[in-house]
Predict the 3D structure of the following.
Amino acid sequence: MFHMMGWDSNVWIFVIIIGIISFLLITLILLYIVTKETNKRESTKSSNQQIKQTELSSIQNLNEIKFCTECGAKFETMDTTFCPACGHKVL
């Protein structure tokens, strides 16, 4: 009857090597998946921060338009379409 105790030492070495290679491959694949997900999250966070900064700068730019670009007259309200002093169209 054939049983495992009759295996050569060469067979055991082969089984051990295959086991080590399998363990290393699984570990490398798991590390790749974890780092890929981490990079994806960081990329999403940076994109969201850039969008928020762009929105904030747009709002700040709207609040800074208080003078006519043509003659320099000060506007009383932010919804002014034409300059009250020179009649220049405000964007």
In short: Residues 11-64 form one domain. Helices lie at 9-64.
